[in-house]
Amino acid sequence: MVYTFSENNRTGNCTAYMRQCLTSTEGGYYTTNRQGQDQFGQKGDFVTSPEISQVFGELFGVWLVAEWMVQGRKKHGVEIIEVGPGRGTLMDDLLRTVSAFKTLASSIENIYLIEASASLRAAQKNLLCGDAAFEEVSVGYRSSSKYAGLPITWCEDIRFVPDEPDKTPFIFAHEFFDALPIHAFQSVPPSQTPTQTLSTPTGQISLNRAKTEAQMPQWRELLVSPTVPSPVITTSASSLASTISKTPKPDFQLSLAKASNPSSLLLPSQSQRYKDVLPTAGAVIEISPESHSYVADFARRIGGSKNPKSSTLSTVAPAPRKSEPSGAALILDYGPASTIPTSTLRGIRSHQLVSPFASPGEVDLSADVDFMALVEAALGASDNVEVHGPVEQGVFLEQLGIKERAEMLIQGLEKKKRKAAEVAGAGEQTLNTDAADMESRKKAIREAVERLVSRLPGRGMGTLYKALAIVPERGGKRPVGFGGGLNA
pTM of the full predicted structure? Predict the structure, then answer.
């Protein structure tokens, strides 16, 4: 694809760049059919946890069952929502697990998959629904799951999913937020901020700030601009280059905006965390307003909207309020547990880090998730939710019994082997061959689990990935996987 700038501007922000590279209808990474090429798996650009082990998705199902039980085993109105379902592997493992709990399965009224890619929708439909009819409906597309015929609806955005106060939504987001667009800002000292104007799409606006304000540090946006022979500016964001080798020369680079813009004035002012960093000259922060919007939507669906402030000027009707908060959201992604991500925008291709500014549309782009920003957004959206975590993925999966489940799979393989040998009356040579194959399969199961929970740097995902849960307000009682149990 060819990344394009606006007609009157040769720079654009990281949000516009990421959105066009990933989801543009003209060459976007996720929205373009690449003649059978898959982004996922060993032959693609990256491997996700559900592809590593079926146990991962099964434990999402276990978590859903546990939350459903804690919340009174509702007999109707249950919804399952997944944002960014990938191939559909996680949902397939989750639904297979949930279908074993008949009362819960019968309470599920709708399953919603939030997916913008037509090719990925097709892959999800084939896995989850097989040959069932696939029809267009008002909010997207619909089919019937191979699991008890449960209805599955595909929407391009969660805003198309009906928000009904009498429903109990269980929402899942695995490696979704890392792909949402970010803004990047750098703190500049007063000596670099002589301008008294604001750049807007309609021209320059005088700020008429007080002298003391002009002497304060400012946030300036880091913009994406075409590569030129000599760097426009060196920022800490360029440190990523030291970890990238053997990559094509980038088509674009980051450059520092010459003046404040609406984004740099508004977004960093919305949290004290960003204000605390501002005095550090050269500090870079990343903010994802779209992530905040999504997680706020999760919280409102679970706990209902905040009490509207009384205002005679408001002409917008408040969102429907839930008489009883219900449902939950589970988020697993990578990023720091408490600090603000800085200079983390990266490209991934063929399982290697590459420049995010080379080969736009052909490289996956992602950035670390700011978990504390998600916490703030969720608590700011609803009075009736709690947030637990983030906790390390290894801790979360081990508390849910990932190693025990892996051993159950191994025992199941051994049982099948014994039955097959009894039926076939196999000879000694065949049994020896089967034994070697069995040991290989047992080893693969255990190694996959170890990869998901390992805390060793460079060898596992146990610490890099974090889990975060949003649940109805219940006095701080922790969910399963976050230090709690069914009676917690």
Answer: 0.86
